[in-house]
Structures are given as C-alpha cells and as structure tokens.
Amino acid sequence: MEIICDNVGKDWRRLARHLGVSDVKIEAIEEKYPRNLAEQVRELLRVWKNSTRENAAVSCLVGALRGCQLNVVADLIEEDQRARALQSGSANPGSFTAWDSGSAALGAS
Predict the structure, then answer these.
(1) pLDDT higher than threshold 60 for residue 62
(2) Which residues touch 99 (CB under 8 Å, ≥6 apart)?
(3) Highest mean pLDDT of the ranges 62-71, 77-86, 97-106
(4) Which of 56, 62, 88, 109 is most open to solvent, judged by the fewest CB atoms within 10 Å of its CB?
(5) d(CA 36, CA 76)
(6) d(CA 103, CA 26)
(7) 2-88: which CATH architecture?
(8) Distance CA 31, CA 76 (A)
(9) How far apart are CA 29 and CA 105, in angstroms?
(10) Tell me, what's the pLDDT at 42?
(11) Residue 92: left (phi > 0), alpha (psi -120 to 50), or beta?
(12) How many other C-beta atoms can be found within 10 angstroms of the C-beta atom of residue 72?
C-alpha cells in the first residue's frame, strides 16, 4: 500500500473509478480524511478490497493503475511482487488471488 500511497497522489479518485468504487464512496472517503491524501488512498484500497473480497487481485490493481496511465506505480508493484516471489520461492508471483493488505508491497497501515 505504501508504494501506491506514495505515488498515486491526487490521481486516487481516477484510480477509484477504474477499480469500480462508486462516487458516493469516493465522497465518503474524502469526508472521512479531508486533509490527508495518504489516508484517502489507504481507505480507497480498503474499500476496494472489502467490496471485491477474493477478487481483489494485485493484477486487477495493476490493470487499473495502467488504465489511469499510472504505469510507473504499476511497474513498482510488479517489481515488488517479483522480488517477493523470488524470496518465497513461488514460481508465479501474480498467481495469488487476493492481496494481503498487511504486506509491504501494498503497505502495512
């Protein structure tokens, strides 16, 4: 999550729409954290993960980032996932279904 929070910035609303988060939820996030951009991004990711449950795959997040032209952020996430896969011995770093919100790749809150 830190990679995203540190690099998405004000584009988080566009990312939210690409992830299928409703305008009502986007507004609620803005109201909950009116002056804290990093917390808005974190809350967006929590809302998205909770709404999609097992479909909250890193590949979906990367696709949404690319759809927003946030390719550098998508690349950073993919690089981090590859590094984690090498450390754990996994053959396919993108094969898992759901991301762990506590992972460093997507950040510990």
Answers:
(1) yes
(2) 49, 56, 57, 58, 61, 105, 106
(3) 62-71
(4) 88
(5) 23
(6) 24
(7) Orthogonal Bundle (1.10)
(8) 29
(9) 22
(10) 96
(11) beta
(12) 10
Tokens of 95: 């094969």
| Total residue length of the chain | 109
15 within 8 A of 5, measured Cβ to Cβ: no
Q: What is the mean pLDDT of residues 59-76?
A: 96
SS (HEC) of the chain: CHHHHHHCHHHHHHHHHHCCCCHHHHHHHHHHCCCCHHHHHHHHHHHHHHHHHHHCCHHHHHHHHHHCCCHHHHHHHHHHHHHHHHHHCCCCCCCCCCCCCCCCCCCCC
Block residue for tokens 């590859």: 82
d(CA 20, CA 40): 16
24: Cα separation from own chain's centroid: 19
Q: Supply the pLDDT for residue 49.
A: 92
